[in-house]
Amino acid sequence: MTKPRVTVIDIAKAAGVSKSTVSLVLQGSSLVNEGTRSKVNAVMRELGYVYNRGAANLRQASAKSRIIGVVVNDLTNSFFAELAVGVDMVVQSAGFVQFLSNTSESIDRQREVVASMREHGISGLIVSPARATDAADFKPLVAAGIPVVVVVRNLPGAKVSSIVSDNRAGMMAAVEHLVGLGHKRIAFLGGFPDTAVFDDRLAGYRSGIEAAGLGYDEELVISSAPSRAGGVEAIGKAIGLGDRPTAAVCFNDAVAFGVCDGLRARRLEPGADFAVVGFDDVIEAQAAVPALTTVSVDPQGIGRRGAQMLLKQINAGKAEAETVTTAVRLVVRESCGAGKAAPARAGRA
Amino acid sequence: MTKPRVTVIDIAKAAGVSKSTVSLVLQGSSLVNEGTRSKVNAVMRELGYVYNRGAANLRQASAKSRIIGVVVNDLTNSFFAELAVGVDMVVQSAGFVQFLSNTSESIDRQREVVASMREHGISGLIVSPARATDAADFKPLVAAGIPVVVVVRNLPGAKVSSIVSDNRAGMMAAVEHLVGLGHKRIAFLGGFPDTAVFDDRLAGYRSGIEAAGLGYDEELVISSAPSRAGGVEAIGKAIGLGDRPTAAVCFNDAVAFGVCDGLRARRLEPGADFAVVGFDDVIEAQAAVPALTTVSVDPQGIGRRGAQMLLKQINAGKAEAETVTTAVRLVVRESCGAGKAAPARAGRA
DNA sequence: TGACAGAATTGGAACGTTCCAAATAAATAG
DNA sequence: CTATTTATTTGGAACGTTCCAATTCTGTCA
Q: N or C: which end of chain A has fewer CB within 10 A?
């Protein structure tokens, strides 16, 4: 049952050299003679040697473990799955390997997962923090010299690098577009006000409104859960307003879908009777009916970018916290009313 | 810059005991006195000790590394993301940690990834193999006593456990349902014939057709890429047939969506003019218009199940290959024409 | 009091690698 | 032919843990 592991010493014996030489070969050192190198390699193949990284890591610094920890708050959400794929791409081609875990927005789980990763000696961590994560949670990591990159949600106060999408600019573009279509009363729907992302998006909304010379009206800002159900709720309140809005920018696509549902329930057709713009550009956005006009953020790109940043820090051996915001772009489809041949099929229910 | 790592010896010194005792505490041994245990724990907390699993793994068998490797062929596909989440759930609550990698259907990448995982000493592997994976690829793993569980796609010939959904029964149920709606000419569209999954689904289709007393007609089986584009192509051929079918079961949901596209392009309304049934029940299926009737396979359940199976084998220390097929169920929505507002009962075209 | 059992603790040795200083071999210079 | 490089190779000594056998400490019992 128990196979005796083939070690570097077995190889050495079989190849008639010392274990040190084998080690050098393993590391691709230029010190070793071409002849011996190939002989050693041949023997390795023959005996079916597998490198024991654990043992190696014992000697070397943890920076050399070549394991990158990736923690996301909701892998079910295709946004984060895409992000993970982006990370994996660059991490893998750099010869690292990815340790992916999902926290499902649970802070406790997040703590466990990060602790476990630390025990395994990760050389860096990319994390999209669970809601209400304490900025101090990653303190011990960076104190231990392990670079951390926070993505998507930023962690004000934590001295770590972060990379978030340009929420302000995105929201501004969305508002601008709606203004261009002639809307004067534009609502901001959904999202929890206690998050940094919410603040950014709201700020973008406000800037857009003011830049257009429309007055910023607090009444038009209606927060709710950042979900489909939250969207239904928010649009309900918006419709009930005295001076009813004719368009809305939503905290994210889920909210936007909910808003569409809510509109239909009131016999209003999204796109035709009321303009809706989302944020994120999840895959469902383009297949939906009507196709959702939304701000595209390219999660895979963020993943790639974050991974590159992390690798840079790992190689530098020094973690200077830098913050990057990635560009976003407005994707105009049908739900804002500017679509091609107006509501195609979507005849009213 | 370089923090001196806190080791078990530092703890021992500070707590006034030997390193062996500290080790026993770490392992929760009942041999150690309650008083010393709590003192040691206190010191650990105080000094910010972090366990070094790598060092531990060096002494213990690799079965104790508590790392589970998970390899999927396409993480972008929400089906597999869900699967990974399912695995993560049970793996995590068992105190293991997940090493997730994505192969993007590349066999080379798969080989690399698996090799890397092996170097890191995984105690087990769950894999949804890339297309055309050689059954022998996992031979060395099982030879080394590392349990492997193959999910979703099976690997005929490999002596490893596998867990696949009941493709036959699912397809049979789909056909039965269409027969019940009065269809006599039912096509099987999409998929590559060189895969085991295809064979199973086709067999289910055939059984269903024959059980209904309809003759199996090879002409009605039209293979294509298992993608949206493939679906468009397949329905094109189907429509061109002399004795045109009035309904189709599709290899998977992507194909089904493509079929709907193709129908619309020919001014036929899916559900009303032609019945379409998919397979997988991806999340988009219920939001689509018309909502897709499809066979639901619960990827998260497969993930959980697979993880349980793997853990069992790891704990048993013995890997007996067992094969499990999980139940599926037909979810009737609108695209088959049996939806709520029961549109035209698929009158012949 | 001595012997003995049980409970608690403890010093190495071992795991498979890397690193360092030092040894050897080969080549070149004086 | 010795001294000096230069190119290879090589034995330990780590790294941080676990395991084993052995030890010390407390009682208990005859």
A: N
Q: How many helices (H) and strands (E) does chain B have?
A: 13, 12
The answer to whether A318 and A142 are in contact (CB under 8 A) is no
Decide if A73 contacts B68 (C-beta within 8 A): no
> At A265, is the pLDDT very low, low, confident or very high (cuts 50, 70, 90)?
confident
Whether A129 and A250 share a structural domain:
no
Vertex A50: Cα angle to A45 and A53 (nearest 5): 145
DSSP assignment of B120-182: TT-SEEEE-PPTT--GGGGHHHHHTT--EEEESS--TT--SEEEEE-HHHHHHHHHHHHHHTT
Which structural domain, as residue segments, surrounds residue B104? 63-165+299-326
Q: Are B88 and B192 found together in one domain?
A: no
pTM of the prediction? 0.84
Kindly identify which residue of chain B lies nearest to residue A74, measuring between CA atoms: B85
Sorted by sequence, the CB contacts under 8 Å of residue B243 that are 6+ apart come out as: B185
**If we measure between CA atoms, which residue out of B140, B127, B55, B53 comes closest to residue B96?**
B53
With contact defined as beta carbons under 8 Å apart, do B98 and B68 qualify? Answer: yes
CATH number for the domain spanning A192: value is 3.40.50.2300
The confidence score (pLDDT) of residue A3 equals 65
Residue A336 lies in a domain: no
Q: Is residue B3 part of a domain?
A: no
Look at the alpha carbons of A116, A122, A126, A132 in this order and tell me if their dihedral is positive or negative: positive
Chain C footprint positions (protein CB, under 7 Å)? 7-12, 14-21
**Of residues B76 and B236, more confidently modeled:** B236
Eight-state DSSP code of residue B215: P
Question: What is the rounded distance in angstroms from the CA atom of residue A216 to the CA atom of residue A220?
Answer: 8
For residues B3 and B202, the model is more confident at B202
B191-205, pLDDT tens digit by residue? 999 888 999 999 999
Distance CA B135, CA B19 (A): 46
CB contact, 8 Å: B57 with chain A? yes
Give dist(CA B145, CA B62) in Å, integer.
9
In a domain, B344, yes or no: no
Over residues A184-210, the mean pLDDT reads 95
What does the pLDDT read at residue A349? 30
Task: Tell me if A156 is assigned to some domain.
Answer: yes
Q: Write down the pLDDT at residue B157.
A: 83
Cβ of A20 less than 7 A from strand C: yes
Distance CA(B339)–CA(A109), nearest Å, equals 41
β-strand partners of A183? none
List strand D contacts in A 242-261 (CB < 7 A): none
Q: What angle do CA B113, B82, A257 make, to 5 degrees?
A: 130
Mean pLDDT of the region A142-171 = 92
B52 touches strand D (CB under 7 A): yes
